[in-house]
Amino acid sequence: MNAEEIIRTIKQELRANMNGVASTRMRESGLQYHLNFGIELPRLQTIASEFSPNHEIAQRLWHENVRESKMLATMLMPVERFYPELADIWVEQMPNFEIAQTAVLFLFSRLPYAPQKAFEWMASDKEMSQYCGFLLMARLLMQGVILNERSRQEFEDQAEVASQTDSLPLRKAIQNALARLPREEKTAES
User: What pTM, to 2 d.p., does this model score?
Assistant: First the structure.
């Protein structure tokens, strides 16, 4: 199948799996998209599993203002073609916290340069960048990334500064990331 056929097939899958009740609830809770099919994440994962990762398809899906298209883009983007500059662009274009969570889970946390981006985004003055940075750090810590003393201190400093925000989602992301930080072990001296 060529790109047009794949996109057409994906759109047919989305229409076939539409959940109007979920879509309405999301809209009422403030999630605004041009189009929202209300499809649950596990079903989107199943749809994504039917296709091979493809940079062109992922880019085209990302540029649609459709909730499920953006989520599928994060699942279908090949990690090896998702360069740091593109990651920054996607974060700048991030429409809301829901898509940010999906991007961190399915794409950002698998990037070889993920720790570097987490620190860059946490240090940003933009709320969505900070949100992505703290979410990504939490995910990396869950995956077993170990911070050296300097990185740990930088992370804690960024968390302290950013926690002054009025943004509840950002404060929650910060708290979640801090909760994932391993406790410093004290060695007993004999």
Answer: 0.90
